Structures are given as structure tokens and as C-alpha cells.
Amino acid sequence: MKQMLIRSIIAAAFVALALSGQSLAQEFTFKVEHDHLYRSCKGELTIGERGVEYKTANKGHARKWSYQDIKMIKLESTSKIEILTYESSKVKLGRDHDFEFKVIEGEISKEVSDFLLSRVGRPVATSFVNAGEKGIYEFAVRHRHRLGDCEGTLRVFDDKVVYESQKAENSRQWRVSDIRSISREGTYRFSITTFEPQFGGPTRAYNFDLKEGMEDEAYDFLWALIYRPTLPSRVDVRSASRRR
After folding, report:
1. Which of 26, 50, 53, 139 could crosslink 154 through cysteines, CB 3.0-4.6 Å?
2. How many domains does the chain have?
3. What is the pLDDT of residues 50-103, one digit of tens each?
4. Residue 174's beta-bridge partner residues?
């Protein structure tokens, strides 16, 4: 009787371990609409541990990508996700094929954004930020758009740069590896160039007017993060600044 009880406990433990392993395999599934050049199709988009899959009755548009097959992922809002791939587009004369999806049931959350940021090595552009999170340096800014503008706060951290806009859909978070370059024109103008493609150019620049200016110490700190990632600490960056 005692042996049977022990065996039952062991068996239950194995089952619990198996179930816990399954729960760790996290994934997110959304009902989406995929825009074509003409018309659109609907299906399911699943973001999982190994990659992203789009299932649809339109077999010509069904896709399955591992994360290494994805050039960039953009989470532009709670209802829009764009996947830029290495697949060449015939319609776009050989340019990289990008797939835009509109979520029609549910919404993309910050949990999805954090999930991707923790797993995807390639660039990620996301509008999800930790509201009010305190940065090492902070600047009140105006972000200039092609048409119009928005205002918010630019925050610099040890491993990322965050623009928290008063309009949530205009907010952005970039890991250090998601930033291609930075530049400063005087004290009151600052730009971040990302790996995002844009119409009329290969990469997208975010141009900010700094309401209070950016001191040299802050710029040197950010410069070292982007161009010299072997200098991770604030003290090292200051020392490097003095030596230049």
C-alpha cells in the first residue's frame, strides 16, 4: 500500500512537471486582417516561442517565419503589427516583402511587446512603453512628424531609449541594438535613426526639438551606449568623455 502511494506521488510529480513545461511555451493568437495591394484576407496570426505564423484560407498568403527569417517587427498600436521579411516582393520590384496585419478581435498588449523584445535579436519597433518609468536622463521634447507633431518625454536608460508621447500610439521604445545612429544639431535638436524602412529612404529618423536642451554629459552617455557598448556604466562614459 505504501509503495503504491509513493508511485502515485511520483507519477503526479511527473505530470505536474510536464504541465509546467507546457505552460512555459507561451504564445499569442489574434484574429487579423491582412492588407494586399488589392483587397485583403482574414486569418489567425500566432506569435510564439519559435516564430510567427499566419494561417488563412488564402493559401497564397499563408506564412510561417522563424525569428531569424524576420528582418524587423513593428508594433505600431494595439491593433496593428507589421512584419518585414527577407522575402523579395515582386510587386515592390524586389524590395523586402512586408506584411501588415490589422487585429480585428482583441488587441495587442504590452505583454506581447515584452515577449518579443526578450526573444527577437533583430530590430523591434514598439509603441508600448512603461508609462512614467524614471530614466537616467529625461528631456521634455516635441517630436516632429512629416505632417504635424506631438509632445512628450524622451528618456535615456542603460539599455534603451524611450519616447513617451502624450498620444500613446506615437510612443516608441528602442533597445540600444534597435538604434542605428544618433545625431545632435546644437543643444536643442536631437535625432534617432532606426532600422525601420520608410517611404523615400532606407531608414527612419525620429527628430526631436528639446525644450530644455541636452547637456554634453547626456549625449556622451548615449553616444557610448550606441557606438561603444563595452562602456556600460555612467562612470566609464564620463571618463571616456574627458579623455576625448
Report:
1. 139
2. 2
3. 999 999 998 888 999 999 989 999 998 999 999 988 886 555 544 557 889 999
4. 161
